[in-house]
Design brief:
The complex is a heterodimer of chains A (249) and B (244). By secondary structure, chain A is of the alpha/beta class. Chain A has nine helices and twelve strands. Helices cover 39% and strands 30% of the residues of chain A. The chains are: A alpha/beta (249), B alpha/beta (244). The structure holds adenosine-5'-diphosphate and magnesium ion.
Amino acid sequence: MTSLLEIADLSAEVAGKPILKGLSLRVGAGEIHAIMGPNGAGKSTLGYVLGGRPGYEVTGGSVTFAGQDLLALAPHERAAAGLFLGFQYPVEIPGVSNVQFLREALNAQRTARGEAPLSGGEFLKLAREKAGLLRFDMEMLKRPVNVAFSGGEKKRAEMVQMGILGPTLAILDETDSGLDIDALRICGEGINAIMRQPDKAVVLITHYQRLLDYVQPDVVHVLADGRIVRSGGPELAHELEAQGYEATA
Amino acid sequence: MSEVLALPTRKDEDFRYSDLAALGTVWPVARETIVVAAGEAGSLVVVPEGELVARHLVVSLEEGARFDLFVLNAGHAFGRVAVDVLLGRGAEFRLGAAQLGNGSETLELVTEVTHAEPDAVSRQVVRSVLAGSATGTYLGRVAVARGAIGSDAEQSVRAMLLDRTATANARPELEIYADDVKCAHGCAIGELDASGLFYLESRGLSPAAAKRLMLQAFIAEAFVGAPDEDALAAAAQAALAGLL
Ligand SMILES: Nc1ncnc2c1ncn2[C@@H]1O[C@H](COP(=O)(O)OP(=O)(O)O)[C@@H](O)[C@H]1O
Ligand SMILES: [Mg+2]
């Protein structure tokens, strides 16, 4: 199995405080990994570090993504290389429409990869198809990014973004929080449709088994105090849900 | 004559933050008079041109008249736009302005709006984006005369600083001598939202493209409803590109 993402002994700090403390993780192409763990363990920090968020300082270790040194790339270069970060709290951007920004973002990625940019018509066709997949109203996609969206709409909008951008690796940070039961199923099926392919992979950060009922993981990890402390098969998620993190740590 | 033409000094409130040396090269500034007759409507887009430039509009709105003014003040070492507005009964004045400065540019917008009679409306939306060591100033005085009841005046003034070395001066000012008036002013000076920028970058936009999108949205508020909104937005976008 080719390893798409290889994190080795990664340490990172935020505002001078060590958060990731020697985290290692390998994700192969075609795999879905779940990361669970108590609040404050560093799960979102891991996502931000992989995305290259300013202020999240890597102090040690390495990250290789599709054969490249991920940490050497700027955030937009990581996106062009095929990384997508689903935010635990998607950011509202007043005055910037989803359609406008996604078309620019996709074409910037395509240009960086040496592909021809999509025309307005081609882009809208793609956007309509992916919005349909997530049962997301195309009219809402014309509105400003995440502004006045409910918690669940924000998460679904993020999955539409993922569909449009077509990444090879998605790090999805608590995509299931804020979703009602129907939206959970729609998002779960969306993730499968978009990402469950032999050359792609997903890292799902979640607290609950319920999303994993739809998106079945190959591997489940427990992240505690900045490290992966345990890994196992899908049954580990059930065990965690039944017994909590402390009993299994 | 010499009094009228004397170059202002820094003690003069309207020139407090001005570049007096630059002003001297364009002084005296001819007044451009605009009168909108009772019940009529007019609009004007002002995009001053030149390295050193100053304009001074004197607008008079008769009863029930309406005037929409849009200003794009960008790309001048010194660019000053002064607007005096006198509002008759039930008249309506709208200003949408953007000031985009870079380098050591000095951009100023100085407005004096007088609600002389009852029931007039004035709305001013001013957006400034300042990079380098540019200075952007908005001095906006709204005066509501005695007896001008039912006046409705609003000033929304926001500035975005792209560099710590840039300066924004914003002074919305109200002088109210009447009862039963509605006046609101909001004024904010800030920086681009870092989490918004990272969000856009994480989707593949370069830092410059992410900033440009957010700034375009920021200044777009000033040009809503302009006669040729797209052309104005395009001109503003070109000026913005020079700031990034
Ligand atoms: N921007 C920040 N400034 C200071 N501390 C932070 C910041 N972001 C996260 N932290 C701290 O890092 C730790 C891990 O947070 P986070 O990665 O959000 O955990 P999780 O997602 O697992 O709940 C927490 O102790 C949190 O307080
Ligand atoms: Mg988190």
